[in-house]
Amino acid sequence: MTLTSVTADSPRTEEEVQKSVLKSRRRPRPKNIREADDSSELNGRRGGSRMVVIIGLVLFALYSIGPAWWLIVSSTKTKEDLYTTDAMWFANFSLFDNLSSLFTYQDGIFGVWMWNSTLYAFAGSIGHTLVSLAAGYGLAMYSFRGKGTTMGFIIGSFLIPGALLTIPSYLLFVQLGMYDTIWAMIIPAFFSPFAVYLAKIYAEGAVPGELLEAARIDGAGEYRIFFQIAFRLMTTAGATIFLLHFVGSWNAFFGPMVFLRGADKWPVMLGLYSWLQRGTDSTVDLTGLVITGSLVATIPMVILMIAMQRYWRSGVAMGSLK
């Protein structure tokens, strides 16, 4: 067959060639190529979002660690170095001298303040946790007349600011003879509507009613059921309530300033504030003592947080098995 016969049998003009080229360009790409492009675009978006999250977490960590680092560094400095050297780095190491001055100034009143804070925080938090767990368990597990109204009052009490109760509480403590006593700090700490509500919500999900019915069939009383069964199942909620109240009680300032008159009954935060108000003394720099005392005052909360981590871990593991 000659070239002439081929061109005669299948003639193709220049216009037909251009159409065929355009048609080939319009053909969809293979599916695997499209999926690869989509996945690369998605990975790019995820990478950008991940980078934004990482930057935010780093900034938040610096914001959180910065004051603590300044407190540690400043606690090791002398009075002169505190005002003349770099605020974020060490100078002459005088931490032990500062601690010695802290615990000997005013006949060791700082140690008394630390003991008061420990007593108020532990005693109040233990009673607070027991009352909250018992009340929350009762609201969650029992049906009684007025239950809905009780819950309404509990939730409505969230709207009442604590400072609004200061004057009524002061008048009540004076009439009961509790003013300027340790009981003004311990007994009112037993009651918290928010903690009761938190315990109720947790008990509804953590304490199965079938288990309680089985215990009643076996002859267990209600108090035994609560302390030996329900209380152990609500350990995570109890640890959370205890820690939240302990931190709040340890950092308490306004309540002790109103209800306590004698310096020997003050908690550590109010005591440090009284030193800060005085500023200087003829024998010692009170600003340095306040900084060192603030560092010492944070140690119990750090220890408590580390010691109670296992309760949250057990609670998370229990929730994953349900």
Number of helices: 17
Structural class: mainly alpha
Shape descriptor reads: flat
- Can you identify the CATH superfamily of the largest domain? MetI-like
CATH topology of the largest domain: MetI-like fold
Mean pLDDT equals 84
CATH architecture of the largest domain: Orthogonal Bundle
Contiguous runs where pLDDT drops below 50 for at least 5 residues: 1-10
First-to-last CA distance: 82 Å
How many domains in all?
Answer: 2
Radius of gyration: 34 Å
> What is the string of helix and strand elements?
HHHHHHHHHHHHHHHHH
CATH class wording of the largest domain: Mainly Alpha
Q: What percentage of residues falls in helices of 4 or more residues?
A: over 70%
> Biggest sheet, in brief?
none
Number of strands: 0
The proportion of strand residues reads under 5%
Layout of helices and strands:
Blueprint lengths: L2 H7 L4 H13 L4 H45 L3 H6 L10 H10 L4 H33 L5 H10 L9 H11 L6 H4 L6 H14 L2 H9 L4 H12 L1 H16 L3 H6 L8 H11 L7 H22 L1 H13 L1
Helix pairs in contact: 3-16, 5-16, 6-10, 6-13, 6-15, 13-17, 15-16
